[in-house]
Amino acid sequence: MNKFTVIQLSDIQLQPLPSGAEPPIPPQLQAIFDDVLAHQLSPDLVVISGDLFQNGRPEDYRWLRAYLHQQEQRLQAPIRVILGDADNREAFNVGFLEHEAAYYAYKQIYQNMDFYFLDTKWRTRRTAGWLEREQLDWLNKNLHLAPRRRAFLFLHHPLDAPALREMRYTLLQNNHELLAILHGHNIGGIFAGHLNFAANYLVDNTLPVTVAGGASVYVDCQDSHQHEVHAATSYNVITIQRGVASVTTRLLSFDPQVLTTIAVGNTGFAKHRPRLIRER
Predict the structure, then answer these.
(1) Annotated Gene Ontology MF terms (predicted)?
(2) How far is Cα 46 from Cα 50, in angstroms, rounded to an integer?
(3) CA-CA distance, 223 to 206, in Å (whole number)?
(4) pTM value?
(5) Are 236 and 185 in contact (CB under 8 A)?
(6) Among 192, 80, 185, 188, residue whose Cα is nearest residue 131
(7) Mean pLDDT estimate for the chain
(8) Residue 67: enclosing H or E segment and its boundaries?
């Protein structure tokens, strides 16, 4: 199998575009794409794993789709996106997809490998993640259609791990349901974002999980209840060869000055599951 290169960036957190003015070029996002070109990384795929806009409107997502199409031409590689907790699903559906969707999940096949892009946005809880039963059933069905093919998953919210015990309030809440579906399948890795700092760990002693640092900020969570936010730009280079993924992080900038502090109360899992009736 040939080498396959994926550029993963996450949490670009763009601000809504100014009305009636020329849309500005997003500096951090442009810096990442320029760096990929400057270092001739030649990606086969680019993934932006959530938090595209903060309070985005349909016109913002419409602009992003056009902008990413231009970058696809520059990089000569497809750019895939998934939703994060900060994204507006309705605005994304109108501006980016141009059709209604309960969730935005899909599958792509590259070089006899399956890539799954999952939607973990939980509408009733801003920061935590959730995979709907319908989406889990879709994933289960597709994994069984190609049980021997190597599969890689991209989602916004990371899975639970001992090192993230004090951040369970903001992780994927139904970890066990996802792991039950993945059990026994040929999973090469799970790639997430959301935390705004890089992390690598194993789940169930077998599944490698990689969390990409933020494209616009770095969040220092050493104090469980007071998270310090810094301006920073980073992205991951994922190299897959013979079904094995290795990851390197490229840190483009970091400002030691603290921009703001995020106060955190309860650090445990959410006490309530989403309602059985899906909200649209």
Answers:
(1) hydrolase activity; metal ion binding
(2) 13
(3) 29
(4) 0.94
(5) no
(6) 192
(7) 93
(8) helix 58-75
